[in-house]
Write a structure and sequence with these properties.
Layout lengths: L1 H13 L1 E2 L2 E2 L11 H4 L12 E3 L6 E6 L2 E6 L5 E3 L4 E3 L15
Antiparallel strand pairs: 1-2, 3-4, 4-5, 6-7
């Protein structure tokens, strides 16, 4: 009986990658090239967050000289001044559109 539990535990743990079940990883979608052009040539100790030019509810994170899309939580927009997702009434999205729900 104990062998069965160990096998099941190993099988379950084998489906995890960094705590995320395999097959649930979100594909990396590149941001527009003009955003990636702003990424540093070498990643530093803290991530670089940039505004997505086509959607105020998204932002871009630099990774090895390429910027990838990330979504703010529903109802929030990216604040390019303080580099976090924030309530829309606190953010000036400028020309970045806010798509309809």
């Amino acid at each position: 009986m104990q062998t069965t539990h160990i096998v099941l535990a190993v099988a379950f743990l084998g489906t995890l990658v960094c705590g995320v079940p395999r097959g649930t990883e979100v594909p990396k979608i590149p941001c527009p090239s003009e955003v990636s052009d702003k990424c540093p040539s070498v990643d530093g100790p803290t991530p670089v967050y940039l505004a997505h030019p086509n959607d105020c509810t998204k932002f871009c994170v630099c990774d090895d000289k390429v910027a990838f899309e990330q979504d703010c939580m529903k109802g929030l927009v990216f604040d390019e001044v303080i580099h976090v997702c924030n309530w829309p009434y606190n953010v000036d999205c400028g020309t970045r559109p806010i798509p309809p729900n």
